[in-house]
Amino acid sequence: MPTNGVRALTALADPTRRALFEALPQAPRAVGELAETLGISSSAVSQHLKVLREARLVMMRPEGNRRLYSLDPRGLADARDYLEQFWPSALAAYSAALSAAEDQI
Question: How far is it, in rounded angstroms, from Cα 105 to Cα 100?
Fold first, then answer.
């Protein structure tokens, strides 16, 4: 079963979902506004937002007859936590590459 961090990264792998995600940091936005910005149907936006919500990357709050979507920090934390597990080995590989380069000088 994939972790929440993997779900977040998988959700962002789709270019349309990534564009929706990137459209939200400035302010909460409604489906219609997002659809107009991206040039796709409201139905398509809703389907993509569902995937982003399930990955905990966006959250929705009702406001009158609209639903406003904004970034959910939980999904970002999940993705960060997943990627951070690889940081020690990435730093070790970088250090080894530097040492090998210095030895060749």
Answer: 9
